[in-house]
Amino acid sequence: MKLSRAILVISLALVVLFLYVAGLILEFHWRMGWYDHVVHTLAGAMASLAIFSLYAMRAITKRPGALFAGAFLVSLVVGTLWEIFELRAGITSFSHRGYAVDTALDIVFDIVGGWLAAGYILIFK
Predict the structure, then answer these.
(1) Are 27 and 57 in contact (CB under 8 A)?
(2) Are 110 and 76 contacting, i.e. CB atoms less than 8 angstroms apart?
(3) Helix, strand, or coil here: 40?
(4) What pTM value is reported for the model?
(5) Hey, how many other C-beta atoms are within 10 angstroms of the C-beta on 20?
(6) Residue among 37, 17, 33, 35 nearest 9 (CA)
(7) Domain encompassing residue 71
(8) Residues 94-119: tens digit of each pLDDT
């Protein structure tokens, strides 16, 4: 993995962690609906970049369809695991109003972030 790519992934992970914790402490996730979407978009991008950084970028970028399918799958799996974590940790629950819609939107924004990361990889390979 190139050092610049590793720095990008680590930096993005730290930003996502900071935004998530700050959002919990200051209740941004509940006060500003868009905030949660931004955090999930960045998390999806970070997950995709981290996974794709483990593989040879040249082999992946020769098949853009496979790259975007991989970004979809990685973001879907990581987003779903995160939603399960939030549920098990008591951060959210089935009884919260709008839980299903919020969870679905969170996963959609995780996937959007993954696709943005795939686009980044194709452009800046």
Answers:
(1) no
(2) yes
(3) helix
(4) 0.81
(5) 19
(6) 17
(7) 3-123
(8) 888 888 898 999 999 999 999 998 88
